[in-house]
Amino acid sequence: SHFGEIYIMDADGSNQKRLTSTPGYDGGPFFSPDGKRIIWRRFTVKGDTADVYTMKLDGSDVKRLTDFKAMSWAPYFHASQQYVIFTANKLGFANFELFIVDAAGTKEPVRVTYTDGFDGLPVFSPDGKKLCWTATRTGDKKSQLFLGNWNHEAALKALRDAPPRGKESSSTAAAPSKTEPSASRTENLAGDYSVEISERDLRGQVAYLASDKLEGRLTGTKGAELAAEFIAKQFQNSGLQPIPAGKSNFQPFTFNAGVKVIPDKNKLNLDTAYFPDGKYAVDKDFRPLSFTENGTVEGEVIFAGYGLTMPGQQDDGYDSYAGLNVSNKIVLVFRYVPEEAETKRRQALNRYAGLRYKALIARNHGAKAILVVTGPNSPNAGKLTSLTYETGTSASGIIAASISGEVAEKIFTVAHKDLKKIQKDLDIENPHAESGFTIPRLKVRISTSVRYVKKSDRNVIGIIPPHGTDEYVMVGAHYDHLGRGETGGFARKDEEGQIHSGADDNASGTAALLELAANLNHNIRTTAQQNSQVRRGIIFGAWSGEEMGLMGSSAFANDPIIPATNIVAYLNFDMVGRLRENKLTLQGVGSSSVWKKLIEKRNVVSGFNLTLQSDPYLPTDTTSFYPKGIPVLAFFTGSHDEYHRPADKPDTLDYAGLERVTKFAGLILRDLIRNGERPDYIKVARQDTGGNRDRLRAYLGTIPDYAGGDIKGVKISGTRADGPADKGGMKGGDIIVNFNGQEIKNIYDYTYAIDAVKIGQPVKVIVERGKKKVTLTIVPEARK
What is the reported pTM? Predict the structure, then answer.
């Protein structure tokens, strides 16, 4: 094929003439509609890229139309001969898409299709109004023919807007219509979406946000950055103003995204005559746990079995520290729970077997360090614990490390003990087992040092300014998702490591946000002069970090660009793309008395089968704003089997339903910006619906601030109305540092402390409020 050339001859086979003489493959020729030119593809000598060329029938006037640095092939002229359509793997070999380029080759190509897999071999109908092409966008991923309507004027506009050849293209043709699942202006940052809320626009926006190019939009990654830039460009195209006026649309925030070991500052030494070479290597013999405190300790070692403490009587409780004094000592414990425990007992013990909890128990008993070994009878016997990290967490207040089975064997040898036998006795809960003892003639010196990896991300903010007031309505949706499942994915066995596209969660909500921004700003600009009513402004917020703990919306709520007192209501869109049986859920209705009236009024024409839920404390961004005194309303079309899985793809959405939901929300939003009366704020009492996300038996009614930053303690963003914390005088912004006599350094300490309290018995809680420490008395209630 390296020597493939193009020839022309008469229809009877005579007068053969060679037209090309260039090293590399020349092939796939077609005539132009007027028969005066030939179009074909030419590969480089290496054969890894190809570009589109045209020439006259005699081989003269050769024009190169593309310099695309990709495999560009199967070109075909439009009937107008003003441009050419072709196939290219610009986005990767496994993802061929259709592009168009002007017939003179002066502009960068414009992307047409947006579906994973193959789109290629395009051919226009003779009148240029239809496009037929081959695609694998079928359930079985087999190639089939597709036919779509072609918008010639939109194609010309996209080409006019395209940059000169040699600069990266950001334009897209508005090509096949309803029959083309994703051929709307998705990556088109220059903008050709209509100002009307449309299924076509929603489809295109979701297709880009949920494309493999963005790799799941994990907070702090390139994919999230691309998503933010796309949203900002749409806000700008829609005429929204940045905040502060004249500056960027971006509101940056930072967060802890992981932890790294500092190799030369992590050391372990066994000081004993048994092993004079007692220095050990990090990541081979030992490894700090991700929640360790940084520092150095030296001391005696006390073995404390599985390091478990579970409340209960002698026959059903468990206490590895019974009879042991570990104060100012280094504790050594097994990982997990007794291996031979019966299922029911194992389930009970597992709740207390987390490494953080074991570290907390050791710390509470006065230990200055904890060493963990995976015993010889356990899964992954002898292996070091992975350096896993949960975003937003902090240090545990104790030096903590994992040691290898070989190091543990040496420690037990000093005490003339058999590691395997001792674990076996503990596994069967032998009452005569040695569950704890001091290791004589041994001192351990350990230094741990880890560094939290700081990352940053951005909220995207756009504003429609108010007229005659300083009040705003805020509309929001989170645009981040789970990447490849690093933060909470539910991938099944054959889905691990795949991109979690997040089409419904939450490209659907972001697309609704973008459509509302364009539509409302257009309508307000065109009617403002005729309308003398007071008009509230609108803040459009696209939040990142929702999947990691409402970090972006919390950053805005805690450091608002516009004071919370000026925001009269917040509307949220999270998973609104899977309308089924016409069922739409509206959450947070109890946060204001105005919601039911507005909803009923606007649903007369919208016609949804509505479910209204009062509770505003939701696992989404409303929970960042409701404690600030802002009434909230959340739109939700329900969960599904594809939730938090790679299967949440654009083709699973109901775009007609998404259009209806967006228009319905737009009607409510119009009422909010026009009505002079401010929505009242109702502090909602706890709602026990049976589906409570909390699993603790005790209830306090506190709302932790997961974006609180690097603080010692647990910052509270608010309290539930009439809950124990509310009755006890706790306020938003308080930092809990001591609970019932237990020092609180992080959310885990707090969770474990709550689990240990008795229902109805008052506990003392110390909080930092500004520069003061305040002691509160709170009476825990039973969680219903």
Answer: 0.60
